[in-house]
Amino acid sequence: MPIAQNPLSVEVTLEREEVALLKVTGYLDVDTATEFQHHLANQLHHGRRHFLLDLSEVPFMDSSGMNIILRVYQEARELPGSVHIISPTAAVRRVLDLTGVSITVPVSESVDEALSRVDAQPEGPRIPEA
Amino acid sequence: MSTSEQPREPAGGAPGEAPAAPPRPSGPPRSCAVDGPAADLRGMTPLSPVGRLAATVDRLSREVRAAQAEAEGRALIELAKGILVARLGCGPAQAARQLAELAEQSRVTPLEFAVDVINQAARDRVSEVTDAFLAAAVRSTDAGDGADAGEAGAGSAAVRLRAAESGALAAGDTQAVADALLEQALRPLGAAAVAIWAAGYDGSLTLAGSAGFSAAEATRWRYVPPDVTTVARCGLTERTGQWFTSLGETGLPSVGRHQYPDGGRVALPAGTGGRIHGVLEIVWPVPLAPQPPQVVRQVEALAELCAHTLESYVPPHGAGQEPRVMPDAVELMDLADGLYDPALVLVPHLDAAGHLADFRIQHVNKSFLDPAGRPRAVVGGALLLEAYPMAAGDSELFQNVERVYATGEPFRARRINLTALVDQVPLSAVADISISRHGNAVLLIWRIEDETARLASLLQHAQRLGRIGGFEENLLTGEITWNGQLFDLYGRPQTSTPVPLEELTSHAHPDDAVAIGRFLRTLLHHRRPASAAFRLQRPDGVTRHVRVVAEPVLDTDDRLLVVRGAYQDISAQHWTEVALAATRDQLAHTEQQAIERARLTLQLQHAIMPPAQAPLKVPDLQVAVRYRPAETEQLVGGDWYDAVRLPNGLVLLCVGDISGHGIEAATSMVVLRNALRGLAVTGAGPGQLLSWLNIVAHHLTGGVTATAVCGLYDPARRTLRWARAGHLPPVLVRGAQAGPLPLVKGMLLGAVAEASYEEDEVQLAAEDTLLMYTDGLIERRDRSVEEALAQLLSTVRPAPDSLDQHLDRLLTYSRSDTDDDTCLVGIRVG
């Protein structure tokens, strides 16, 4: 199986000072989740509050990958900040819907859409959808 | 050196005296002397033929030298007899008797009397010199110094001169004269070499004879054109003896300048009857102090002697000349001098019958070191078997030289054991040998231990750094060599006696005796490299862990010659290994623990959810459950199912999946499963139950998340009301159709503090089958969950008769590729 052949690649660009765009390429699973988590933790450490996760090149994501997204979501919510998922593939979108993560973590079709959602977010701790 | 029993020509001062014997056959007489008895000896001493042979050769060599001296004396006696025959007009026998009687009357030896007779007859320069010597001797006797010594000294000087003359005249050519002069007269004066130059009519000089120079040097100087100023030319042009303290100071070129750059030189015109025939050049190895008149006169007498031979000297004519040394041998000598290894140039030596008897050592190069430590000059010029009698022995060195000479096929061998006799003591050395033929000569090169020594010094450094003690044990001589490190390692002073390998056991811990025994057997009996680790017990009471490594060194005959090797103090390493072993044990223990934990998890799973549960008794409803743990024990995790009839008559159906694996996941699973059972008793709907369960999960330590699907089946209405928390929806199998229920909204458990869950209700009919499962059943990376599920369901169509069979087949044909544990709950209505 193409796990070894497709190592995870995470490309980080700063859209704004506090907004990091992480473009993920490869499988997000139990083998790569830790690396993905390190990238996110690093950005948190550098003071980013908003995380835009471009998952358009992630063909598969399992619960490990999803848990990382949930974890950064919980961290960002305390800052306060936000997590946005951008252009997930059908399979990943399916997992997000299955697990209900897409209820909590907004899914955008583009970076601009995500940025406008960041702008729209009120300052202060986010009130979870209940 | 060349001598003969009889002068071929009478002395210059005594013409007409009859030659007594025909010229002797070519080749030194001593080789004959060696070959004869030595050959006999071979058969006589079977026990140690070569050793005895060598000893005999040594003895015979000495006898031959004595005989030679005697022969020279006999030549003088014969000459005196010849004079008496002429003067007294008697026969040779009477002349001999007369000589003996006169000698007895004069109270001198017959030899000394013979010299007197010759002197009286000759009345030449030699006589004058002899008289002067005698006079000087008498004066010193008068002065009161030991009369016998003085007389004997004068007498022997006279004998010496006449012997030189006799030798010179007996010699067939000027070359032999040079040899005789050097050996008989000039070496006693401290000279090292002599050259006799023949003067050409045009003023050129031709080297008519020389001794003490290398053959190659003599060949280079065979001709000096006119008008080239050399030392010899000075003697020719000045017509008087030229005495130079040091050749270097003159700045003049001459033969042998590189060999004796600073030595003294004398160039004497050699003339008879007012005509100069050539020049006698004498070479001293060291600067020459002004000499006493006696020496000057003696040397002038020698120059006159040379003149007699030069008088009849016919310069060789160019191409017609037969060189004394073959040109290829000359080249070979130059080549040999350029080598950094000891090299010998050998030329064949034929016996009287023309058979190859031996090889003469024509040349020894500058790097030559005799294995027996003899000076180069002793070996150079000697016969090979005479210099190295043991060459005929086991090493077959001589046979190899013979074969190379015969066939021209080079011979190369490593580690030949060379033995040389020095004062009857055999000294052995291991050497690499190369023998090759060039023209008529054979080049023999060997390399003794030099390279080994260099490597050894390198090794010394390595050994010091590695705390390695090196040793070498010669099994023939019993000699043991240790380096300093080894003494330190053994805790013994450098001056103490090394411990032989065979006594190793007595220096080691008794328990290591077997290991050492095995080591020695491998090394000495099987002759293979061996090593052993043992505890060395030092005299100071310290025990060191030591490893010994050794290898046998065999000679070409596969005899065990030497054992060499090294001891290494591995105490530090040893304790590291001990520590490592302990760590390894600990690791194994940890591993064992991990396995036990995995097993514990599994047992926990089984205790809570038996793989096959006792059937649930509900009217018109089959309920079946399956749990399949992950194949890898460590991956056994947090899947759970539940199927229980609640007090209100409803049946709680549930499947859940805790993220992660191992005992923590299993513990969380237990918490959630029991919590759900407890909450269900309240009679709340599935959405509410999951909402509460989310709160439970959210407060579990370690950020646990879980997915679950939860349904309440009402047997009376045949309805299932259900909700899901991030989990795959149930699948409904109805007839030929199979599909998942709609994806109602529901966040996975534990991710957020509060979540709400949509509910849905499905009306079931008889024969309907409803499946709840965890993603271990269908999860594949290369396709969507729906595809995988559809594929799975199609493989189990038509639905088997029993629900249990159905579930078993689902597990069997599952094409999941993620080794995950799997839970499956099914109900069948009817």
From TrEMBL, chain A:
<protein>
    <recommendedName>
        <fullName>Anti-sigma factor antagonist</fullName>
    </recommendedName>
</protein>
<dbReference type="InterPro" id="IPR002645">
    <property type="entry name" value="STAS_dom"/>
</dbReference>
<dbReference type="Pfam" id="PF01740">
    <property type="entry name" value="STAS"/>
</dbReference>
<comment type="similarity">
    <text>Belongs to the anti-sigma-factor antagonist family.</text>
</comment>
<dbReference type="InterPro" id="IPR003658">
    <property type="entry name" value="Anti-sigma_ant"/>
</dbReference>
<dbReference type="GO" id="GO:0043856">
    <property type="term" value="F:anti-sigma factor antagonist activity"/>
</dbReference>
<dbReference type="InterPro" id="IPR036513">
    <property type="entry name" value="STAS_dom_sf"/>
</dbReference>
